[in-house]
Amino acid sequence: SISLAGVNCKDKIKNKDIFTAEQIEMKIRHCESLKEPRKAFRATLTAEQKAIRKDKSLAKKVKREKLRTTLSAEQLAIKNEIRAKRKQNRAEFKKTLSPEQKATLKKRRKERKVK
């Protein structure tokens, strides 16, 4: 099933093998809850800002910096709202993790850094 923002939230979840069904559902709910604010943000973009986002010649960091300098107060407020929601979702999810799950995730992060 294709979702509103073009991304299926189920496909975005990493480490599904160590999460419970409830945790996976929570991650999907969190992902879905961010779609509308992101859509609202994209709707406020000017032609210039859209051009910056689509410019393939720019590195991700450069693109982000260029875009940040052009954002209006309203757009910044939406971005901050999205950031706060993500932070809240992350904290809520962390509370559900068992010590074993935390240990497994930590181990996987370390292995990924080594590669």
Structural notes for this entry:
The chain is an all-alpha fold. 75% of the residues lie in helices and 0% in strands. It contains six helices and no strands. The chain has helices spanning 9-12, 21-43, 47-54, 60-70, 73-96, 99-114. Helix 2 packs antiparallel against helix 5. It is globular. The two termini are 34 Å apart. Residues 1-5 have low confidence and may be disordered.
Number of helices: 6
* Helical fraction: over 70%
Average pLDDT over all residues: 89
- Note the main sheet: none
Q: Assembly state here?
A: single chain
Radius of gyration, in angstroms, nearest whole number: 17 Å
Helix-strand sequence: HHHHHH
Give the beta-strand count.
0
Cα shape: globular
Strand content range: under 5%
Uncertain runs are 1-5
Provide the structure class: mainly alpha
Terminal CA distance: 34 Å
Offer a quick outline of the entry.
The protein has 115 residues and is an all-alpha fold. It has helices at 9-12, 21-43, 47-54, 60-70, 73-96, 99-114.
Index terms:
single chain, 115 residues, mainly alpha, 0% strand, globular, disordered N terminus
Question: Helices and strands in order, then pairings?
Answer:
Elements: H1 9-12, H2 21-43, H3 47-54, H4 60-70, H5 73-96, H6 99-114
